[in-house]
Design goal:
alpha+beta; single chain; 95 residues; flat
Amino acid sequence: MSRQRASAPRAEDEHRQPCSRDALGRRWRSGSALVGVARVEAGSHFPSDVLVGAAVGTSFGLAVPALHTLNLQATALAGPQAGPQTSGLAVTDTF
């Protein structure tokens, strides 16, 4: 009886996401879509509000991880600004 040797792990196998994480992502997106539909049905949002919100959220969800892989030097600063007449967010950057 001959036994076959186990093959070495392939490089692409190391970068695959676990199945449970994929399922969680699908559930999360499905839940978000159901909330959007419920908001429209309840009359608290227009359909365009939900679609634009989904587009903006998806854009940021794709852009932020992509920007983190660029290893850019951080020069922008943001912080709260409060005074007797104003309150808000101050953003500064160096070029």
